[in-house]
Specification:
Blueprint: H1 11-15, H2 17-24, H3 41-44, E1 51-52, H4 58-68, E2 72-76, E3 83-88, H5 89-97, E4 112-113, H6 130-137, E5 149-153, E6 160-165, H7 166-175
């Protein structure tokens, strides 16, 4: 086995030191990975996703993000609740500052749309191992560019359960005992 993501959660404890050595030698593992010890996205305890509609005013979305200290908001369709894109709050503040958008503009003028055509969509669920999430953030899982956050869904991708950020992963490692 060359990667922990190919092992079911909890399996490495059962397979013994030979497997542990092989896993530690894997080039995709960071210095944090040894601290994950089978943890999944659920262990990050991601806050529930806060979604905006494309027609919501930017000021409302920004206020909601500030109230909850969120750095990303998902944007969903008013009719189908389908995930359309997201608002990156630091980017949104920059757009407001340089006058590209105004606070009374609608969210759809500032949101970043998800690319659906021609790109691989990596499903991140509460059961996704943290090693895989870290790899996703570095751009390794799907071969795309590095990501700042992950939308956490149910396995069927019908419901947005939360948002996990690279910062959440870093905080988890810091507070987890060695």
């Amino acid at each position: 086995m060359s990667s922990i993501s190919s092992l079911p959660v909890g399996t490495q404890d059962l397979l013994g030191p030979a497997i542990d050595q092989d896993i530690r030698a894997s080039p995709v593992r960071s210095s944090w990975a040894s601290k994950y010890r089978g943890a999944t996205v659920e262990d990050l305890d991601p806050p529930p996703a806060l979604s905006s509609k494309p027609t919501d005013p930017i000021s409302t979305a920004l206020l909601n993000a500030y109230e909850r200290d969120y750095t990303h908001l998902t944007v969903v369709s008013e009719d189908t609740r389908a995930l359309l894109g997201y608002l990156n709050i630091p980017r949104l503040k920059q757009l407001l500052k340089n006058g590209s958008v105004r606070d009374n503009d609608s969210v759809d003028k500032a949101m970043q749309k998800f690319r659906r055509k021609g790109s691989v969509y990596k499903v991140i669920t509460m059961d996704t191992p943290l090693e895989e999430l870290e790899q996703f953030f570095s751009g390794g899982v799907s071969g795309s560019e590095p990501q700042d956050f992950a939308v956490v869904t149910d396995g069927a991708r019908r419901f947005v359960l939360g948002v996990a950020t690279k910062g959440d992963l870093e905080e988890f490692v810091k507070r987890r005992p060695a």
